[in-house]
Amino acid sequence: VDLDTAKQELEEFIPHVRNISDSSIRKMAGRDLARFKQFKKQGIAVKFGRFSQKENNQIRKNVEEFLLITGIDSAEKLLFTSRYPEDKETISRLKAEHLFCEKLSEGIPRPWRLIYYRARKMFDPNNYKGRYTKEEKEKLKKYHALHGNDWKKISEMMSRSNLSVAMKYSEIKSAINYGPWSKEETQKLRRAVEEVIRKRMETENANSLSSSEKSHREILIDSEKLYQKLPWTEIEAKVGTRYWRQCKQKWTTILTNKMTKGQQLYRGTKGLQAKINLIKRLYEMKVEDANEVNWEELSNTIGDVPKAYVQAKFYKLKVSCVPFWQKKTFSEIIDYLFEKKLPELEEKL
């Protein structure tokens, strides 16, 4: 398939395809186009965003089956072949012979590259090493000064995953403040969020709304824009002294106070009732994966709050109440909370 035809055909499945480099489009034409057309025949849309538990399980199954077929003895060797130079030639030959690309992406309606990145994240033993020590942070700064953004090289030197070292460096690269927010920082955050929301609205509304409609939209900023997905790395750069995750958490706190008029929703008997309501609603939903939860709807169980607030409260609940929660599926976590924790909370209330 020539490049223009590939772009045209892929655009049906990936609307932003024209922003992708020509070499990537050529690869996608080979690895993805036939798969996407097959999924379309089955009425299945191409997906982006977070991987579901079902998709993660399919990746595990695909990797395990490929290891059985080829006799390669570990997922690390399969997905991080460069770590094993003595076996590289044999593994590369087996991957080509047994159609590794097709096998890895089997049954998953996503671009191959995203499936491959997800598999590498899941099976990299260097990805689950816990918090960075002070010494590791100093090493990371030193290696970055020597090698720049060569995360592959730095990850090998630190025995951490590429993604882990890149994210940690973005967190420590500047004079990030970890203490309480100052008044000046909070004002910077408010201004930064306001700027990105207004810029987004101007882009959306520039040619489509009359001035009277625009003023009507201004009134709806709170409910429509304030806790949709915001470009947090851009906001981080504008604030300057805080990491993006801190900005997001602080903004959720500001919004929650604004929307609840400063009431303490998660304290005392109100807090117990909120936890009870949250567990009951999650149990009633009978969903298999956190991605299927309508967090917007769930926020009503606590009050008029942003969905990020509810997600944070649920995270706190599972971490503090569910033993070995990392090894449990989402539905197992909910069942445990419903069967074991809920009676305790009701008694306490």
Automatic annotation (TrEMBL):
Domain Myb-like: 124-172, 173-255
Chain ranges of the HTH myb-type domain: 124-161
Any single GO BP term: termination of RNA polymerase I transcription
Cited PANTHER family: TRANSCRIPTION TERMINATION FACTOR 1
Signal peptide: none
This protein's GO CC annotations: nucleolus
Taxon lineage: Eukaryota, Metazoa, Chordata, Craniata, Vertebrata
SMART domains recorded: SANT
UniProt protein name: Transcription termination factor 1
Domain of life according to the entry: Eukaryota
Entry GO MF terms: chromatin binding
Pfam families: Myb_DNA-bind_6 (PF13921)
Organism: Pygoscelis adeliae (Adelie penguin)
